[in-house]
Design brief:
By secondary structure, the chain is mostly helical. The protein has a domain at about 30-100. The chain is about 45% helix and about 0% strand. The protein contains 4 helices and no strands.
Length: about 130
């Protein structure tokens, strides 16, 4: 075997194996692929539904009409009151975050390692923040 400048190194090249590796698959791969296709199709319909909701709320709050077509809010007739639409939306989101369901607040990412590895993380105390209850 030779190095980069053509001199031999004295080492023999190892023989290549007859098989490069274990690339065998099982019928489970077909099931996983079908599940992935199903999840992709479901995700596409969820994305379409979210786009329709965006169109609905844009039309409802800026143009006062019940329509799901995606339109630009630039041509609205609200004038200076146009600024109240995103402000009102942020107030609604803030109220939902503050007084909404407790379910989302219990499942914090800081607690996930303890759920997966209960013994190894049992000695680590969880940080106490105002939002964790």
């Amino acid at each position: 075997m030779s190095n980069y400048n053509g001199h031999t190194t004295g080492h023999a090249r190892p023989a290549l194996p007859r098989e490069l590796g274990d690339f065998t698959t099982t019928p489970r791969v077909v099931w996983i692929a079908l599940c992935a296709v199903g999840i992709g199709i479901l995700s596409a319909y969820v994305a379409l539904a979210l786009l329709r909701l965006i169109g609905l709320f844009t039309n409802l709050f800026f143009f006062h009409r019940w329509n799901t077509a995606l339109t630009s809010p630039a041509n609205n007739q609200l004038g200076a009151f146009e600024i109240l639409v995103p402000v009102g939306g942020s107030i609604i989101v803030g109220l939902m975050a503050r007084y909404g369901s407790e379910h989302g607040r219990r499942s914090t990412p800081l607690k996930w390692p303890r759920l997966r590895f209960p013994r190894s993380f049992a000695a680590i105390p969880s940080p106490r923040t105002p939002m964790s209850r």
